[in-house]
């Protein structure tokens, strides 16, 4: 018997059920149908004494089809299929390689025995999508490794390797060599030893793994790890039930809870971001590339914090990179910083010493532009000064081979003006990395009107090589993320001038879900950085004498943030802990008095509205102007680059969640109080509210 996806062949009494559903053997409806037919055939044959379940390609089943989340519940199908495997009257061996995540691991748990190659990895990451394992994992895994270890696996959401899985107890043997041959051999070994079926569901859960102290500890861990979220707490409840409920009742409970979770805003937001990140590479009107861009060598100009971080990105990807700086001192400092970064990775166990040395060897320090001549891509990461950047690009023009991709890491400056300094503006893009560049996944790819198709393809290919999430934007001040940041941060600064304590503002934002309050971000980045950017771009801002004046007041007093030990907060040497500082409050109050800003009492609700509504409003302006391709791209920028909580879906998704009318009415309310300069609703916001449409509907209509 064979289907397009699942095949069966019998080898000396062992039925090999092979799944082949490229690229990663996702458990689609067609795959489930094929597997169900295979199980029926095995059951009907009299010559089958054991079963080996394997997958073709680079991996075992990667997981369930997330695209089915929006449709009717599928748990009953999974439950019936996995039960049919578990209830086969002959031993069933799962042969595992690559990754077995989520539903893929749950499929393996329904088999009687599990072997794996040494490099295989396993995990139950469902809480990262706002749900819980829904194909029996909450009930089968505790019967193998206990409630506590199951929940540690679910809450961490990180995969474990085969050796760890064997130690935990859900992998029976780690093997070397050909997996299918080993699976068949293991099945024959079981038969020789008289081992029959071993249904996981028939096992008992160790009650000592689910004591009240254990469960309370795990609940506290979940609350810390997943604030404002319910999936992890739901997982604890359902997995703990495995210790007290019969198996079938436990499956009923799992199904009940997972279907409730799927309807939560948490799940919908997380699934939205998951697909939004996949969609960022879909560029309307972009023809296929005529050739595969070469990315064998790279160059970076500027060995500061960003340049060094970008160099690490290339070295981590195995790409040789020349790191150029204007002075020997700057180059030495930059290479020392790179070395310290790699040393930290070794100390944390993320790299071996040999791996560190190999990556460091890929980074060549230089003072000469000639050493960039053979680079396929060169990224400028110098100080934010237009004249300096234009001169760098003129120098690159003279020394770098034709056809190389030229990129600027500018966060605010006009990429088109930088590109105009070269004789090849079609080869120029903005590649805005986020700090620390070797950690943050976001990469804003900025195209000018002159950027060629090949250059854009090369930029997207580079993002893939560096394992970055690219979001394409058109040229404007601040692109997507930093332009939207203006209103968000403006109101935070205005409120501390009105008398709100920095901790009140940051605390409200962090409790709501932002990774870090914006004032603490300024302290971390350096208050002087923001002041210099605003001074250099004063023509970009409205005529508001209070605009970003909290930063200015602190900067004038020498309070630069963490680097000086004083900013919005006070810091001890070598410690980033924020301490409230009455001196900062006094300075801000003095500035407010000079500016004629009256004190005001701020509720937590007002703090959130005044920061988030301008953020959303500017996002709508960006969409209407065509700077961003789609609303979901804006969400990716903010969730991947600015610490916006993924479980709220990004600012545009969140606007739909609370209702565009709510945002619109809030903008009008604050406009009535503060005037129209900063609070005029975006035309697109007004129009969508009048039409009764959501941003999601607007996005869908444009892409249809």
Describe this structure in words.
The structure is a single chain. The protein is an alpha/beta fold and 704 residues long. It has three domains: 6-263, 2-enoyl-CoA Hydratase, Chain A, domain 1 (Alpha-Beta Complex); 298-475, NAD(P)-binding Rossmann-like Domain (Rossmann fold), CATH 3.40.50; 482-627 and 659-703, N-(1-d-carboxylethyl)-l-norvaline Dehydrogenase, domain 2 (Orthogonal Bundle). The protein contains 30 helices and 17 strands. The protein starts with 5 loop residues before the first strand and ends with a helix.
Instruction: Output the CATH topology of the largest domain.
Output: 2-enoyl-CoA Hydratase, Chain A, domain 1
Number of domains: 3
Strand order of the largest sheet: 12-11-10-13-14-15-16-17
- Unreliable spans are none
Find the count of extended strands (DSSP E, 2+ residues). Answer: 17
- End-to-end separation in angstroms reads 41 Å
CATH architecture of the largest domain, by name, is Alpha-Beta Complex
DSSP helical segment count: 30
Strand content: 5-15%
Give the integer mean of the pLDDT values.
95
User: CATH top level of the largest domain?
Assistant: Alpha Beta
Rounded Rg: 28 Å
